[in-house]
User: Which sequence fits this backbone?
């Protein structure tokens, strides 16, 4: 997430609030459109993301003994998405960009979003590589030790977020209004490692997968992927596609700003605040859409969900059985008393 450098002046003053109010009064239409976009996000996407990610965690953790490697990766992805969905509320209601005036909150927001972006793209990249290994038979079977892989992904995401932050904080020690999101080197790192490099790896994996599947269909008696593998591949492919469609606007916006270098004295976020707000909402939408992908394409998850509700219904009926038998016995006793009279 890029933050306007002009928000953190060298001297402490209240000019930001005045400028913000002036822009609001000068562009009421822009404010109304931003409010409309935020309302759409809150009404349609936020409930799906919040409830959907919780449902993924509840269903899978209840049946954690039967988690496959893709399910385990999606559970960890749901954790990252749930954190970002909760964090998105600050950005959604930040129509006047108020939290940018507070360097501590600004830094927290950017740390949170950057860590989530790294963890999301790393999990999706690893899931795609795992499907590539499984379907192409490059290493015989799927990648071993998926739990260890998840731990390493979280560690790598944390290090890529915390280490640049620590270096930037050391370089800008003593600056009261410093927010590490303003450092261009960190933004280049985010675009390269969090977007462009994974895009190349994913493109190579799916290109090889398409080649192998095409060859197996041409050769008679060639190895055919099992239906569950095909469905797992479709689920991961859809998740990857949605990730890049949602994060592409913000990465393009940041890249254009970095290439421009701020030579004109302003930033794209300052010159086009409505476009910037829409780009951030699109990025947050990725965490809301992942549960829908997992539900529509994840056959294993639907089986677990049906089994969970079937089991709850059976337990409820079993618990109500003594009351039902007692009621039957009571009615039989009543009929006997009536027969006596």
Assistant:
């Amino acid at each position: 997430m890029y933050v306007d450098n002009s928000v953190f002046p060298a001297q402490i003053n209240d000019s930001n609030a005045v400028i913000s109010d002036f822009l609001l009064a000068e562009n009421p239409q822009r404010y109304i459109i931003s409010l409309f976009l935020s309302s759409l996000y809150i009404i349609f996407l936020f409930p799906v993301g919040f409830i959907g990610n919780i449902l993924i965690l509840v269903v899978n953790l209840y049946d954690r003994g039967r988690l496959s490697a893709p399910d385990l990766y999606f559970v960890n992805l749901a954790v990252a998405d749930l954190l970002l969905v909760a964090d998105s509320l600050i950005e959604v209601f930040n129509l006047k960009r108020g939290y940018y005036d507070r360097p501590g909150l600004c830094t927290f927001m950017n740390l949170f979003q950057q860590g989530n972006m790294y963890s999301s793209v790393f999990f999706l990249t690893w899931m795609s590589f795992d499907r590539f290994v499984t379907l192409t038979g490059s290493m015989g079977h799927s990648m071993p030790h998926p739990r260890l892989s998840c731990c390493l992904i979280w560690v790598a995401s944390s290090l890529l977020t915390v280490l640049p932050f620590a270096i930037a904080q050391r370089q800008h020690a003593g600056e009261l209004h410093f927010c590490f999101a303003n450092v261009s080197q960190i933004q280049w790192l985010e675009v390269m490692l969090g977007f462009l490099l994974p895009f190349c790896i994913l493109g190579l994996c799916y290109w090889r997968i398409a080649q192998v599947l095409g060859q197996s269909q041409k050769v008679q008696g060639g190895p055919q992927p099992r239906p569950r593998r095909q469905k797992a591949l479709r689920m991961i492919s859809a998740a990857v596609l949605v990730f890049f469609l949602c994060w592409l606007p913000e990465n393009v916006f940041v890249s254009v700003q970095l290439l421009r270098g701020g030579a004109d004295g302003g930033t794209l976020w300052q010159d086009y605040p409505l476009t910037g707000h829409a780009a951030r909402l699109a990025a947050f939408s990725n965490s809301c859409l992942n549960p829908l992908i997992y539900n529509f394409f994840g056959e294993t998850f639907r089986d677990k969900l049906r089994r969970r509700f079937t089991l709850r219904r059976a337990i409820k009926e079993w618990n109500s059985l003594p009351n039902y038998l007692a009621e039957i016995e009571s009615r039989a006793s009543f009929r006997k008393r009536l027969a006596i009279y």
About this structure: The chain has two domains: 5-297, 301-341.
